[in-house]
Amino acid sequence: MTQTPPKSPPFYPKSHILAASGIAALLSLALLVFPSSEVEAKRTSLTLDMPSPSDTLKGEPEPSPEAAPQSDASPFAEIENPDATPEATAQRPATPEKPDPQTHRQVLVAKGDTLSTLFQKVGLSASDVQAALDSNPQAKQFTRLQRGQVLQFELSPDGQLQSLHSQVSHLETIRLNRKGDTFAFEKVIEKPVVRSAYAHGVINSSLSLSAQKSGLSHTQVLDLANIFGYDLDFTQDIRQGDQFDVIYEQRVLDGKVVSTGSILSARFVSRGKTYTAVRYTNKQGNSSYYTADGNSMRKAFVRSPVDFARISSRFSGARAHPILNKIRAHQGVDYAAARGTPIKATGDGKVILAGRKGGYGNTVIIQHGNTYRTLYGHMQGFAKGIRDGSPVKQGQVIGYIGTTGLATGPHVHYEFQVNGVHVDPLGQKLPMADPIAKGEKGRFMQQSQTLMARMDQERTTMVASSKR
Fold first, then answer.
1. How far apart are CA 415 and CA 368, in angstroms?
2. Distance CA 100, CA 173 (A)
3. Domains 101-189 and 192-299+435-468 share a fold
4. CA distance 451 to 467
5. Are 360 and 412 in contact (CB under 8 A)?
6. For the chain, what is the largest distance between any 2 Cα atoms, rounded to a whole number of angstroms?
7. Measuring CA to CA, how many Å separate 191 from each of 28, 170, 249, 376, 392?
8. What angle do CA 54, 56, 59 make, to 5 degrees?
9. What is the DSSP-derived secondary structure letter of residue 194?
10. Domain locations in the chain?
11. In angstroms, what CA-CA distances link 95 with 92, 98, 196, 201?
12. C-alpha angle 199/286/386, rounded to 5°?
C-alpha cells in the first residue's frame, strides 16, 4: 500500500504575512492608546467654548457667568483670538479702574494723640491742620479728641485733604468739606425715636447693683435715689427684699438704644410700705415729681447730704469724742465716704458761712428761711462759687468730703437746727412742698393712672413669663 506523504503547510505569499503583522501591530498600539472604560471613567475633561471670529463680528452676547472663567488667574484668561479684527477688539468693554485706596483713610484716636499726629498718619502736614482749623471757628471741635474716636479722611489723588468727618457721639457727627481754597463746617445731629421702657428689680445687696441688673443706667440709679430721697434714706432704710418698678424714656436710633432719658414713673416698696412717683410737666413747661395722688415728692429738705454714704455716727446727747476723749453731745450725723465725695445742700437757702470753724474744719452753714439752718463740717474744700452770701439750691454741690478739723477719717458732719435748736435730722419730720395745682389736677390724674396701670400690667406679664 502506497504511503501518503504528509501535507505541507499552506503557502502564504510574503505580502500577506507582512499585512497580518502590520494589523497585529496596529491592534497592540490601539490597546495602548485607548484605555479601558474603567480608566476612562476616572478622567476629568474640560471643555472650553471659544467664539469664532464670525460670531464675534456678529455681536453675539457675552457668555453667561457660568461659562465665564472664575478667576483672572485662569490659564485661559490671557488667550486671545488671533483671527479677531481690530474692530471686534474695540467692541470689548473696558475694565473699570479700581478706586485709589489712598483717597479714603481712617485713623483711630489712641492715648496721647493730637489732631496734628493724626494728620501726620495720613500724610498731611501741620500747615494742613492749621488751614482746616482756621477755616471756621467751629472746626476747633475736631481738637476735642476722645480715645477710641474714629476720624475719616477723604484725600485727592495728589494727597490734598478734601473732607474730614468724625462721629463724636451716637447722635452727632461733625464734618469739614473743601470749598475751593477753604473748608465748610457742618454738624449733623440725628433725631432718635423716644419710647418708654420698663424695669423691675429686687434688692439683694444694694440698690445700685440691683438697678443696674434691671437695665437702669448709673445716672438713673442716682435719679431714683433723688426722687425718693425725701422719704427714704438709702444709706439706712433699704433692706434685702425691697422692690422697685420703673418706667423710663429710651432714645432709639436705627433699632439700637443710644441713651436713656427721664424716669416717667416709679414705685418703691420698702419694709412693706409703698412709695410712688410720677413725673409731670405743667402748662408752663416745668417738670416735677409727685405722688400718684398728686402730692409733691419734693419737700423742703432731703434726708442726706451725700449719696449712698455710710452713717458712721448718729445724733446723740452724750458720746465719747474719738479725739478729745471726753463725753459730749454729738449734735449731728456723720456720713463717711471716700475723700472728695460731693456734699450737697439738703435744701434751698443762703450760705451764711463758708470757711474755717474750730473743730469742724472747713464748714458751710446754710440758712433756710427764718426757721431752719444746716451745717456741713470737715470738708476737704468748697465747691466753685460757694462763699458767704451765695444762694444755693437743693441738691447743689457745696463741697467735698475731707478730714479737716477734729476728724479721724473722711466724712461730713451734718447738723440740722429748727429755730436755733439742734434736732436729729434722721428723725425730723420734714416740711412738705406744694401739691399739684388745682387747675392741673385732672390732666395729672389721667397721666398718673395710665402710668400706674402700665407698671401693674408689666409686672403681671413678667411674673407670668417667669412661671412658664
1. 13
2. 25
3. yes
4. 25
5. no
6. 176
7. 86, 10, 15, 43, 35
8. 110
9. E
10. 101-189, 192-299+435-468, 310-423
11. 9, 9, 53, 63
12. 95
Q: Tell me if 332 sits within 8 A of 373, measured CB to CB.
A: no
The amino acid present at 58, given as its one-letter code, is K
Q: Name the nearest CA neighbour of 178 among 167, 164, 166, 168.
A: 164
At residue 312, φ and ψ (nearest 5 deg) are -100, -20
What pTM, to 2 d.p., does this model score? 0.53
Whole-number Cα distances in Å, 106 to 121, 154, 444: 9, 9, 52
Class of domain 192-299+435-468: alpha beta
Phi, psi (5° rounding) for residue 179? -130, 90
As given in the structure block, the three cell numbers for residue 195 are: 419710647
101-189 maps to CATH 3.40.50.720: no
* pLDDT by position in tens, the chain (length 468): 445 555 545 555 555 555 566 666 555 555 444 544 443 333 333 333 333 333 433 344 444 444 344 434 433 333 344 444 444 444 444 444 444 545 898 899 999 899 999 999 988 998 889 988 888 888 888 988 988 999 999 998 888 899 999 988 878 899 999 988 889 999 988 888 999 999 999 998 888 889 889 989 989 998 998 888 878 877 777 888 999 999 999 999 888 888 888 999 999 999 889 999 999 999 989 899 999 999 888 788 888 899 888 888 887 765 455 554 555 577 899 999 999 999 999 998 999 999 999 999 999 999 988 889 999 999 999 999 999 999 999 999 999 999 999 888 999 999 999 989 999 888 877 777 778 888 999 999 999 999 999 999 998 988 888 777
Question: Distance between CA 202 and CA 215 in Å, rounded?
Answer: 13
Cα dihedral sign, 78-82-84-90: positive
Q: What CA–CA distances, in Å, run from 429 to 230, 254, 266, 301, 345?
A: 10, 49, 23, 10, 18
Alpha-carbon dihedral of residues 69, 75, 80, 83, nearest 10 degrees? -110
Q: Which helix (H) or strand (E) holds 262?
A: strand 256-270
Among 247, 295, 309, smallest CA distance to 450 is for: 247
The CATH code for residues 310-423 is 2.70.70.10
Quickly count: other Cβ atoms within 10 Å of residue 368's Cβ: 21
Our measurement of the distance from residue 217's CA atom to the centroid of its chain's CA atoms, rounded to an integer in Å, reads 11
| CB-CB neighbours of 375 under 10 Å | 20
Instruction: Report the alpha-carbon distance of residue 207 to residue 199 in Å, rounded.
Output: 13
What DSSP character marks residue 422? E
Amino acid 428 reads Q
Q: Which residue has the cell 457667568?
A: 65
C-alpha cell at 92: 470689548
- pLDDT of 11 reads 52
